[in-house]
């Protein structure tokens, strides 16, 4: 049985507006939802007296508003400010609160552009591929940030390569991995680049590609062996499943 979450009844007459994204919020649940889904973009702008006044006057959460004012007065961290709101709402389980706290700690000293990449990486890892692509593309469409090294952008292209590959857009995937390798010069990027190329090229085109880099033939051989090992492993697993199925059928036929 799943756990029940007790929602708060109070609904603000006048919404609180998150100016950064022009989002209007009417309830504590909406505020918590915004915070949890934008942990990567939360900055000092959320930590203000206006939010305290809104919680106090519109939602009647005077105790929480007082706690948040104490965080501001004592020059507490943004992380503490956000966690105070989330804990007081009692919407999230302990395990989820631990996850949120870990993410906030990870983001604490990151630049805004690094936070955006972290968001994209997490979206990709959780299977939200299209959303991850949008985040990565947004980073590349911005003016280049000189505070990060060039390889940072190479890793963005690698993330796009992985995302396009999961959508079976192998030509785009190969193009992104190629850009990533040109920037990072990381040999680990060559295998996914070759795999994506193999998936969309004709055999003739792929064989021509293998002649263009001295390491391509060796990497291709290792990749093909790994693919063969995976296929053999899957076949063995399938054989075991079929064997068990036949055994069950044999036993039933002799009862």
Give the ordered list of helices and strands: EEHHHHHHHHHHHH
On the 0 to 100 scale, the average pLDDT is 85
Overall geometry comes to elongated
Spatially, the strands of the biggest sheet line up as: 1-2
> Distance N terminus to C terminus?
39 Å
- Helical stretch tally: 12
Biggest sheet record: 2 strands, antiparallel
The residue ranges in which pLDDT falls below 50 over 5 or more consecutive positions are: 1-6, 249-255
Any overview of this molecule?
This protein is mainly alpha-helical and about 260 residues long. Helix content is about 70%, strand content about 0%. It contains twelve helices and two strands, in the order ββαααααααααααα. The chain has helices at about 30-35, 50-55, 60-75, 80-90, 95-105, 110-125, 130-140, 150-165, 170-185, 190-200, 205-210, 215-255, and strands at about 15-20, 25. A hairpin with a 4-residue loop joins strand 1 (about 15-20) and strand 2. It starts with 15 loop residues before the first strand and ends with a helix. About 25% of the residues are buried.
């Amino acid at each position: 049985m799943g756990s029940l979450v007790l929602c708060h009844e109070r609904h603000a007459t006048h919404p609180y507006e998150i100016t950064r994204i022009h989002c209007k919020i009417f309830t504590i649940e909406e505020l918590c939802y915004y915070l949890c889904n934008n942990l990567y973009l939360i900055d000092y702008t959320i930590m203000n007296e206006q939010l305290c006044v809104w919680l106090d006057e519109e939602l009647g959460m005077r105790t929480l508003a007082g706690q948040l004012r104490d965080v501001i007065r004592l020059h507490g961290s943004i992380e503490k400010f956000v966690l105070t709101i989330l804990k007081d709402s009692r919407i999230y389980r302990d395990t989820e609160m631990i996850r949120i706290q870990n993410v906030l700690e990870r983001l604490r000293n990151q630049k805004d552009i690094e936070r955006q990449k972290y968001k994209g990486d997490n979206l990709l890892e959780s299977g939200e591929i299209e959303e991850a692509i949008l985040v990565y593309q947004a980073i590349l469409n911005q003016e280049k940030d000189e505070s990060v090294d060039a390889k940072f952008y190479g890793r963005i292209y690698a993330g796009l390569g992985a995302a396009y590959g999961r959508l079976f857009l192998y030509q785009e995937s190969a193009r992104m991995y190629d850009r990533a390798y040109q920037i990072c010069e990381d040999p680990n990027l060559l295998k996914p680049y070759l795999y994506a190329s193999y998936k969309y090229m004709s055999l003739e085109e792929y064989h021509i590609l293998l002649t263009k880099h001295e390491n391509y033939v060796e990497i291709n051989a290792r990749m093909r062996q790994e693919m063969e090992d995976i296929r053999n492993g899957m076949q063995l697993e399938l054989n075991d499943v079929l064997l068990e199925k036949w055994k069950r059928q044999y036993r039933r036929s002799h009862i």
